[in-house]
Amino acid sequence: MRLTRPMLAPAALAAVLALTGCGSGGDGGAAVPETATGSLEHLAAEAKCAPNMQTDADTIRQAICDTGDERYVLATFSTDRGQREWINTAKDYGGFYLVGRKWVAVGHEDVVAGLRGRLGGTLEQGTVHGGGGHSDGDGGHAGGGGEHAGHSG
User: Fold this and answer.
1) Would you list the DSSP string of the chain?
2) Of 10 and 153, which is predicted with more confidence?
3) 150 and 19 in contact (C-beta within 8 Å)?
4) Please, which pLDDT band fits residue 153 given cuts at 50, 70 and 90?
5) Nearest 5°: phi and psi at 92?
6) Looking at the whole model, is its pTM more than 0.85?
7) Please, are residues 104 and 98 in contact by the beta-carbon 8 Å criterion?
């Protein structure tokens, strides 16, 4: 499968935004362990998720993790540069990112904060668009604290 990076970031973020409409009661206050490393499968095992593979290419491997109320995208990259380019592009879509060496987890703020207690890493936030959320009647947005609550299908 040959996908270009410009195609992957929007596709991944569309999936994330569709999945993260309602937050979970993640534990963001836990101690942060040393940042995990390894394959997508190893990271998924550390995060206690059964990964649903979405992309399996040479430069990026990407899966959706669904563990009860927690849904997020977990991606691994072949290079640090490829990872940073993907994150920089993806951040334009908002969202919350847990970043490790050659991997990223993307989801609702509570979910990635909870994952940080299992995987370590650094929290990053995407671009916050607008001040009051969308009011076009889709009901999938929550307006609290500047966070992007995602979209519901």
Assistant:
1) ----HHHHHHHHHHHHHHH-SS-----TTSPPPPPP-S-HHHHHHHHT---EEEEE-SSEEEEEEEETTEEEEEEEESSHHHHHHHHHHHGGG--EEEEETTEEEEE-HHHHHHHHHHH--EEEE-PPP-SS---SS------STT-------
2) 10
3) yes
4) very low
5) -60, -20
6) no
7) yes
Amino acid type, 123: L
With a cut of 70, say whether residue 1 has pLDDT above it: no
Distance CA 71, CA 113 (A): 13
pLDDT in tens, 37-90: 999 999 999 999 999 999 999 999 999 999 788 899 999 999 999 999 999 999
Mean residue pLDDT of the chain comes to 76
In this structure, what is the dihedral angle of CA atoms 101, 122, 119, 71, given to the nearest 10 degrees? -110
Q: How many Å is the maximal CA-CA distance in the chain? A: 43
CA atoms within 13 A on the CB side of 118: 15
Say how far apart CA 107 and CA 93 lie, in whole Å: 12
- Say if CB 114 and CB 26 are below 8 A apart: yes
Q: What are phi and psi of 18, to 5 degrees?
A: -70, -30
